[in-house]
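#data-curation
PF: Archiving a pair of folding outputs for the training set. Convention for this channel: one message per protein, sequence first, structure tokens after, nothing in between. First:
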Amino acid sequence: MSDHTARAEDAADPAETAAAGQSEAGVQPQAQAETLAAELKDRLLRTLAEMENLRKRTEREVVDARQYGVASFARDLLGVADNMRRALDAVSPELRGSAEAGVKALIDGVELTERELIKALERNGVRQFSPRGEKFDPNVHQAMFEVPNASVPAGSVVEVVAPGYMIGERVLRPAMVGVSKGGPKTAPGSRTVNDNATVDRKS
């Protein structure tokens, strides 16, 4: 190899080294940029998912506030409805038939007020239910006493002391009931259909 050739090779080596270095330097920032872009995309997707969950949760809370916001006030009104019903139940058909016109008008006025109160509760999502004849369900009924009765299946509601009330799908107040005992047991799977059975007792 001549001195001229050796000098040419020596001159080429630094150029090749510089070109390789520039190539590696170009690849490294590109990889960093791709990694940063992937991280930012992941953060964006996570943020969008969190915002969607927040939106759905807020919508549920608004619906619950509208539907159940009157629960406390409605519960206070139930005592008024109960007292009106007790007053009307205390008037026997014989007494009503022999009452003077003024007393009859008073009774009619109490009945009208009771109906309007129940309608007002219904307009605000509160509905009354009376479970007589249904199978006792501790989710929606409160047993006040037992009634010996061999003619009906044990665990049936045979008397309603006070009707129950639902607000939306929640129990506002369970029905206060008398439950039968001593009768035949109901067969498994023969549970009385109760449209109030699927409830959440939160209120």
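PF: Second:
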Amino acid sequence: MNCPRRECLAPIGIFLVLASTRVALAQEPEGPQTVAPAPVALAPRPVLEHRGIPTANITVPAGTRVAVVLENGISTRSAKAGDSLYFRTSFPITQNNQIVIPVGSYLRGELLESKRPGRIRGRGEFRMRLNTLILPNGYTVDLNAVPRSADTGGKETMDPEGKVTSPGGKGKDAETVATTTVTGAGIGAIAAGAKGAGIGAGLGGLAGLGAVLLTRGPEAELPRGSTLDIVLERALTLEGSQIQYRHTGEFSPITPPPARPQ
């Protein structure tokens, strides 16, 4: 059948539109969806590798000296056995080019004994020991250390077992007796001449001796800010994974001990 070109193409176009509409309707699900779409699987994250962090233990050998600063003062005037003592490190300890005990680490100790000086004889003394080390990240280890030397600002002495002993008071006692003797002699001389001077001197000497008998000798003291060297009596074992610090401590000015009468 012969027909114009436009009239022949019109039915074909209508047929194609109807066919595409049917295909689209067939692909659409009937009614509302009740099943959630399948989740999209996420690619697994790569496992982070902790490289360069040692796991082997690190041993600080016995005999290592650690410089510390006293945070609370000690005096035999009020100290007693069992009192807690607090210190912080003032210089880092290194091993294999690595800081293992940073500046600013804390140490805790205790007084083992404390004795006041006597009124006639005996000196003030106390003995201490350090028991615990707390590193900046909170890692805590048992410690067994004693102080070997201290800068107290006074004349106290320290023995190898960490016992601090006050200076003797004999010079001060003699000065007290001499002063009261001279004072008594002067008063006696004014009152009754040479004879009175002798009597006054004797009375003054007795007064001075009485004052000495009623007064204790110098107390043993370590003021806050005293610097000490402590010595590890046994090897200190640290876990390698616990001594990775974000910072290795910051410098903190040392508060010098207060001036003390000589």
